[in-house]
Amino acid sequence: MERTYIMIKPDGVQRGLIGEIVKRFESKGFKLVAMKLTKPSKEHMEEHYVDLKEKKFFAGLIEYMTSGPVCAMVWEGKGAVVTGRKMLGATMPSESDPGTIRGDLCIEVGRNICHGSDSVDSANKEIAHWFPEGICEWESCSKAWIYE
Ligand code: DAT
Ligand code: MG
């Protein structure tokens, strides 16, 4: 089953939005298989966003992302990567549709409250980067009521 790395950024944690975001993924039918609150180091965060290191907003992005705890999660389910991105909404909150997490809950790109893997390949890399200890394998009793 596909897995995606979803992270609530420091602004989402500070604004008390962990429950709201977790609720959306749970209600959808995805299964939570890893979760922790952690304050990432600069090096750890730079590695996570290594593909953006040439961008002019990179330094500000790292400062923001290391300014407080993040809620790191792995969610599992059919199409979790693509659907997870749709649930987050567009990167720019001004372009995120109402009904999406960013569309409903934030205003600025530099405070867009959540991260989601953009491909299965990056999900696997991000899960290994954030959860080197591994994830929690478990069977959900609602599986037969979510999948046919
Ligand atoms: P996403 O988080 O939707 O995958 P991304 O990977 O292109 O988007 O960028 C990572 C984060 O960097 C994004 O969530 C917020 C920040 N960012 C992206 N574009 C930006 C910009 N033009 N100005 C400021 N911050 C930006
Ligand atoms: Mg991205």
UniProtKB/TrEMBL annotation:
Enzymatic reactions: a 2'-deoxyribonucleoside 5'-diphosphate + ATP = a 2'-deoxyribonucleoside 5'-triphosphate + ADP
Q: Which InterPro entries match?
A: NDK-like_dom, Nucleoside_diP_kinase, Nucleoside_diP_kinase_AS
Active-site residue numbers: 115
Biological-process GO terms, alphabetical: CTP biosynthetic process; GTP biosynthetic process; UTP biosynthetic process
Listed GO MF terms:
ATP binding; nucleoside diphosphate kinase activity
List positions binding ATP.
Answer: 9, 57, 85, 91, 102, 112
Q: What is its EC number?
A: 2.7.4.6
Sorted UniProt keywords: ATP-binding, Kinase, Nucleotide-binding, Transferase
The main enzyme category here is: transferase
The family note in this entry says:
Belongs to the NDK family.
What protein name applies here?
A: Nucleoside diphosphate kinase
Q: Which organism is it from?
A: Nitzschia inconspicua
Per the UniProt record, the lineage of the source organism begins with: Eukaryota, Sar, Stramenopiles, Ochrophyta, Bacillariophyta
